Amino acid sequence: MKIGLFLLIQPYASVDAQLKLASEMGFDCADVTDTNAGGSMLGTAGFSPTVSLDDNPFDVKRMFDKYHMTISTICAHANLLDPTKPSRYSTAEVMKAIKMAGAIGVKDIVTTDSEPHTEWAAKLTMEQRAFVMAEKLYEPCRMASDYGVRILLEPHGPVTDSVEGLRLVFKYLDDAPALGINLDTGNSWIGNGDPVAIAKEFKKKIHHVHWKDLGPEWKEKRGKVFGTGFSNIAVGDGLVDIKGVCAVLKDANIESSTLEIIAPKETLLKSVAFLRACGV
């Protein structure tokens, strides 16, 4: 399994600058970590590591090629629970990410439910939330199949953090072949899920992993927040059962993974060594 990097190494720096730093640290793959539709003010000015989904996909690939880096996944973390509106990152952006990935040979895009931000979505039951997610993903799944791309659901909300919720989404989408999972070890744990149980239940559907561990300061927040974005400690130094996840997935033939850690080089390399010692 390749181990890549989260492209938020340096604050207020462009994708190009982040790739240069990742390459200098010895990494050869990374996610397109942040994406936006249309233009981004800070992105255009070079102060944000974001990629426009309306850019020429081949320019994005050339930027990675410049540093001999490959693209692991294209992140399209959406809000799939709240009602659709033009300013809410959702189905339209996911479909743009699929087109970008298909054009330049990236196999996977990553999306998620996110926590509800409206009163309407907050009142929904688990079954209703899973149905709302499935409705927003129905057309993207059809498109992904045509483009030869997979949509990977990442634990990052009340549906995706649980085995039950993931089961329901797969059921409502008739177990679509283009739908899989990007297991985020830290997110699933902080959302009161069990990353080892998710790994066991969906082993054949997991095609990418976001590795992060969380320290004791997160214990009281477990079950109260959804997603952490990133960690600042090495995997293996926190409360998440990373070894247990590795034991399940080490023979799953997963091609790539990402360290979602913002920390000094020593911490990143320590994480790689830990994962390699666990057999991934």
Features:
alpha/beta; two-stranded parallel ribbon; globular; TIM Barrel; 280 residues
Alpha plus pi helix count: 11
Mean pLDDT score: 97
CATH class value:
Alpha Beta
What is the rounded distance between the termini? 6 Å
Characterize the biggest β-sheet. Answer: 8 strands, parallel
Ranges where pLDDT stays below 50 over 5 or more residues in a row are none
| CATH architecture grouping | Alpha-Beta Barrel
Structural class: alpha/beta
How many strand elements?
10
Broad shape: globular
The domain count comes to 1
State the strand order across the main sheet: 1-10-9-8-7-6-5-2
Question: CATH homologous superfamily?
Answer: Divalent-metal-dependent TIM barrel enzymes
Protein model, in words:
By secondary structure, the protein is α/β, with parallel strands linked by helices. It has one domain (2-277): TIM Barrel (Alpha-Beta Barrel), CATH 3.20.20.150. Helices cover 39% and strands 16% of the residues. It is built from 11 helices and 10 strands. It has helices spanning 15-24, 41-45, 57-66, 91-104, 119-122, 126-147, 163-172, 185-190, 195-201, 242-249, 265-277, and strands spanning 2-5, 29-32, 34-36, 50-52, 70-75, 108-111, 150-153, 179-184, 206-211, 256-259. It has an 8-stranded parallel β-sheet with strand order 1-10-9-8-7-6-5-2. A two-stranded parallel ribbon has the order 3-4. α4 (91-104) links the parallel β5 (70-75) and β6 (108-111). The chain is globular, with a radius of gyration of 17 Å. The chain starts with a strand and ends with a helix. 48% of the residues are buried. The mean pLDDT is 97.
